[in-house]
């Protein structure tokens, strides 16, 4: 153990000074920094680093651009298939670079295990999301050991979007999902007690209603929702409050995916079709409750896109959230 701690201290000490962001932790229903000040995270998700690197766009400029848009956090979605295809050593090199470049740009990092499906039955929505309980646990053991003590890596999003896909992936209750996440929290905290685990709800991480009577049995965590516009019909606000907004009264809440695009846009699909009316409503809802947020996705191919090209020209939703981040993160 002593040798392991010395190695971690050496790694952290070797990071560039610019990457040494103030550590954040949970107090009550807030994220706070070392001075006890409330921190609300507003940023973006990029595409899978493996995809961005294969597109020839992987480098510090990407993170500098995200910071220039006013973000204070960047989410890194790691697809299980990409993790296996690149190999652990190769993928960790990408994550190391992302953490260094993000820290230098003043951005905190969310590392997200980007699977969609039922971890209990190990049946998933698409081959790119295929994983297992064992692989998921090994991923978090590896990642938590590597970034323990690095304050830039503020969050571990344990499982992107739990869903039974209308029963086609097998049964999945909140109780069962909660217990799976508690196992992962224990694994993470054995190596890294400081980074904040993020636990998503059911229904593709939308529905946190189970938290009312059956919260996660762990301190210092935060919850996740993905409140895309077509998850519920208008008026949105009462439904948001009932299904996930209430969580922010007691615990920190982080909407790690949201976004909108027109029905005729490239890759438009349910549940993301809407316009700025949704953007205005959801940001106002977040800000009234101190909820952190990060739209999907800072990429010109994956939808709903925030940029039209790698020249970083914003889409309609990109311009909307860029302006909101610049205003609110000032």
UniProtKB/TrEMBL annotation:
Residues 32-299 form the Glycoside hydrolase family domain. Belongs to the glycosyl hydrolase 5 (cellulase A) family. InterPro entries: GH, Glyco_hydro_5. The keyword Transcription regulation does not apply. Transmembrane segments: none annotated. It comes from Rubrivirga marina. Residues 1-19 form the signal peptide. GO terms for biological process: polysaccharide catabolic process. SUPFAM superfamilies: (Trans)glycosidases. This is Glycoside hydrolase. The keyword Hydrolase applies. One of its GO terms (molecular function) is hydrolase activity, hydrolyzing O-glycosyl compounds. It comes from the Bacteria. Keywords: Glycosidase, Hydrolase, Signal.
